[in-house]
Amino acid sequence: HQSLCSVSSRKRMDDFLSDDALKISGLFNPVKVKHFLNKTNVNKGLSEVDGGRYYIAQVFTGPDGFIHRYRKTWIWHNRPDDNYRDEWVRYDPGTGPDLFTIDGVKAPCFLCSDGESKRCIQRAADLAPEVVFHPNNRRRITEDEAYAGRARSIGAPMLVTNRVGASWGAATTGRCMVFSAKGELLAEANHEAREEILMWKLKPGRG
Q1: What count of Cα atoms within 13 Å lies in the side-chain half-sphere of residue 92?
Q2: pLDDT digits (tens, 9 = 90+) for 110-156
Q3: What pLDDT, on a 0 to 100 scale, did the predictor assign at position 143?
């Protein structure tokens, strides 16, 4: 996931974002989405403002338009605020993962540091999903077992993504991964900051 606008303070966010500019229903017009995406489902990370509150959001869209929006809940606290990474300073928390249906598959989504919360993982497990979306915005992903353990705890295949490029002022090196419900690493992309599309034929379902 990534921010739609890279801005360094709450004041700068006010300059770039507005209630009208990032209303989900307006940003993802169903007709335009259907025209460009045809039969494709896409999810995108962005900074969202709604009624004066600021969220790190992941939005899912498909041929018929808007599907689901998740707002990061266990937001990251980086007290030195290196490279504007202290989310406590800039964002409000969401309400945790919910179950939604995408292309006939039941799934929840949670973002980056959400996955470090036992409450988040337990809530996702209680939803009994068929697949899990776990986007990240990290400098580097090296903790394979941590992600494998989350897939096992939830009991469903998990799709892990990480950003490539600059996040605020920090360099991120990518590495998308696909885990089975048993925590097996099925496929992965490079983690050397090269843009790459990872394709894997996954069979959703409970472990």
Answers
A1: 10
A2: 999 999 999 999 999 999 999 999 999 887 888 889 999 999 999 99
A3: 83
Tokens of 4: 């739609």
CB neighbours of residue 38 within 10 Å: 9
Instruction: Please give the structure tokens belonging to residue 56.
Output: 């790190």
> Is the Cα torsion angle 11, 12, 15, 16 positive or negative in sign?
negative
The pTM for the full model equals 0.79
Integer CA distances (angstroms), 196 to 64, 135, 157, 189, in order: 27, 15, 21, 7
pLDDT at 11 over 60: no
CB 69 within 8 A of CB 56: no
Between 41 and 179, name the one with better pLDDT.
Answer: 179
Copy the structure tokens of residue 131: 């697949």
Identify whether the C-beta of residue 96 lies closer than 8 Å to the C-beta of residue 70.
no
45, burial (CB in 10 Å: exposed 0-12, middle 13-18, buried 19+): buried
